[in-house]
Amino acid sequence: MVGIRRAIALLLLGFYVTQFAMTAWLGPDELYAAYLGLALCYGLAFVGLAAEWFWARWFAIGVGNFGSLLILVLLQVGMEPIIAFFGFTHLAISVFLSGEGMAAKYEYSEAAAERWNLQEESLTLMRRAVKSAGSTIPILILYTLGPSPEFMHWVALGLGGAGLVGLLRGRTWGVLALGSAGLIAACEFFLGDPSSGYLILSPFGYPMVSGTVVNLLAAGLLAVPIFFARPMLRMLRAR
User: Is residue 198 helix, strand or coil?
Assistant: First the structure.
């Protein structure tokens, strides 16, 4: 069932790439950048998963976890069909890409072992970090590209994108860049207006969280350097 599960996950990711791109094109101008950014993020997950890049399964699961968060909104607003569809289809992406059989197609494949030669501890750290990045980078996109972005929002997005590239290349600066993006979002949360958090829906009904709530969720990128704290300290002591 690995092939069928991956096909369904790709179908769902492709659906959201199309929907976010169409919303960016046809929706209000103030949401254009946010939805275009989401379309590119989901497109990265789609292409990586289809190309069987070793990290793509982790990133796609993280994206699925991001959308699954909106299931919690149902506890407050009741059974809204559109929000339920958004949340449960993202949960399906995460579930369908889980399991050892699926991992054998990606991080445990022969091609990944020959090219990257990652040890089990490194794979565990990368798995946690990339999943965390996949969950929080869409939130970072909303945080940065929502209505009335400020300069520090752009800095956070730049650090997040560069940090993901550095992380996948096994660079320490990538870990630090992702943590810095999370730190900026955390500072915005604690220093910003606590009454500015709100939930908005696009004209096509797709949910987008914005405001101070997003600052707190985007601060989840701070978890990435925490995952790598122990090996980084070992490296510094060895020097």
Answer: strand
Say whether 10 sits in a helix, a strand or coil.
helix
Q: Look at residues 12, 1, 129 and name the one whose alpha carbon lies nearest to residue 64.
A: 12
Residue 93 structural domain: 2-238
Phi, psi (rounded to 5 degrees) for 207: -75, 145
Quick one: which of 120, 140, 141, 130 has its CA closest to 165? Answer: 130
Q: What is the pLDDT of residues 126-147, one digit of tens each?
A: 888 898 889 889 888 887 887 6
pTM, to two decimals: 0.84
Q: Tell me the three state secondary structure of residue 199.
A: strand
H helix runs in 31-96, sequence order: 32-51, 56-68, 74-77, 81-96
* Domains in the chain, number: 1
- Under DSSP, is residue 193 helix (H, G, I), strand (E, B) or coil? coil
Query: Per-residue b/e over 85-97, b at no fewer than 16 CB within 10 Å?
Result: ebbebbbbbbbbb
